[in-house]
Amino acid sequence: MRCANHPNVETELACGRCDKPICPRCVIQTPVGGRCRQCAGIRRLPTYHISPAYLARGAAAALAGGAAAGVAWWLVLPYRVGFLGFFGILIALALGYAVGEAVSRATNRKSGPPLQALAVGGVIAAYLVRNLLEGAPLVPTDDTFGYVILVLAALVALGRLR
Questions:
Q1: Do both 78 and 35 map to the same domain?
Q2: Which pLDDT does position 126 carry in this prediction?
Q3: Could you point out which of 6, 9, 16, 102 has its C-alpha 20 to 30 Å from the C-alpha of 139?
Q4: Is 22 within the bounds of a domain?
Q5: pLDDT of residue 129
Q6: What is the number of other CB atoms lying within 10 angstroms of the CB of residue 109?
Q7: Bridge-partner residues for 14, per DSSP?
Q8: Same domain for 106 and 140?
Q9: How far apart are alpha carbons 37 and 20 in whole angstroms?
Q10: Are 55 and 114 in contact, with CB atoms under 8 Å apart?
Q11: Whole-angstrom distance, CA of residue 130 vs CA of residue 108
Q12: What is the pTM of this model?
């Protein structure tokens, strides 16, 4: 017999349901035996299935949440003040969580790499909004503490949508 998906591969395996010949690369082990992909019924988890509509909602939430977080960041910890130690870490945690939560709620608690990227984009938008409001360059070279807060917030936003 030849595999139905790979005609150049000889096989002795067959789907336990439809008897279609399958090779070892094509077999899906299920609790009732080896099956072909169609009979195994492999589906993505609904939490990780992200439609274009959810992506659009997530992008809008990331931008809106990032803008709001950027304004809050500017009010609480201006560019010229610096890091302020533990207080800066708390701001980073709150910033990342706020943007990640906004994206999560807008997408009906879905998660996955595309939404993580949107959340990181929202955190970057917050940084840019803060710099615009402060009158600083968009990407200043002397804002070490701002970059530390940015990286910590991005990590928290990533973790929120894992």
A1: no
A2: 96
A3: 102
A4: yes
A5: 95
A6: 9
A7: 21
A8: yes
A9: 11
A10: yes
A11: 28
A12: 0.73
